[in-house]
Amino acid sequence: MTLAPPTGRSGPSPATRPRPPRVLRNLNAKIASVPMILTALVVFMGGTAWTVAHSFTKSRLLPKWKFVGFDQYERLWSSNRWLISVENLLIYGLCSLVLTMAIGFTLAALLDRKIRFEGAFRTIFLYPFALSFVVTGLAWQWILNPDFGIQNVVRGWGWESFAFDPLNNPETVIFGVLIAGLWQGSGFVMVIMLAGLRGIDEDIWKAARVDGIGVTKTYVRVIIPMMRPVFVTALVIIASGIIKLYDLVVAQTNGGPGISSEVPAKYVINYMFEAQNLGQGFAASTMMLLSVIIILVPWAYLEFGGKKRG
């Protein structure tokens, strides 16, 4: 008796079917990523290389390939204006990193206690982030104005000797800018921290209470180490805002009094578009790029290299 051939589809099973070469796997996704890769290579990498190359030239109003070596960098680091810009950025950056993280985490920890009207408080704290830096700078320029700002209000209450005028004092003007930056950025960091806290398992809090561990100690020894990726994300966002600090300074002080509140981004813009000295502007922007690389490369090595070694 002859057996009939089996009906249905024939052929190798999925387990024994030959797999396509590695290059052809996820081909649609790879094709879709081509425009992004080309943009990154041509626009970002190409533009960066073009800027660095022209920082060694004597470009003025228009770029030109007349190399002068490190003359632009020597002129840059001998400029008092650039040195003040770097000093201001360091002061603003360190204070902003520490205070924004501390304020944002504190607000998030308070809201995480399931307080009443949490939604209203969250909206109030986050609202400044919805404003542009220009609006924030102009608003705090009025608030810190001694004629009709905080100083005038406190003196109206009877404290005639009260003095609070940071924007007109070269020694304290950068801290006046810092106040506006903290007011705008702390709410956004609070939201990031609150999302991280809401991701913590409730059983951890229950175990801490059973063991008799206090709330503060639980945050320091348990919660904060578990939120390390959240803190890294917040730090990267804050650091990118610090490097790009420009419009807040322009709106609030325009670099004054004198040049006491200058920052590197304003130095670059002024030399490239006002002084019409592209070579000097390119040199300053290259130094800003170098500072970012110096910070990010060790962090990336410790963050990803350590995981591979582990």
UniProtKB/TrEMBL annotation:
Q: Does the keyword Membrane apply?
A: yes
Task: Return the SUPFAM superfamilies for the record.
Answer: MetI-like (SSF161098)
Spell out the InterPro entries in the cross-references: ABC_transporter_permease, MetI-like, MetI-like_sf
Superkingdom per UniProt: Bacteria
Q: Does the keyword Metal-binding apply?
A: no
Region feature (Disordered): 1-20
Q: How does it sit in the membrane?
A: Multi-pass membrane protein
This protein's major location comes to membrane
Matching entries from CDD domains are given as: TM_PBP2 (cd06261)
Gene3D superfamilies reported for this sequence = MetI-like
Pfam families named in the record: BPD_transp_1
**This protein's name:** Sn-glycerol-3-phosphate transport system permease protein UgpA
Per the UniProt record, the lineage of the source organism begins with:
Bacteria, Pseudomonadati, Pseudomonadota, Alphaproteobacteria, Rhodobacterales
Q: Which gene encodes it?
A: ugpA_2
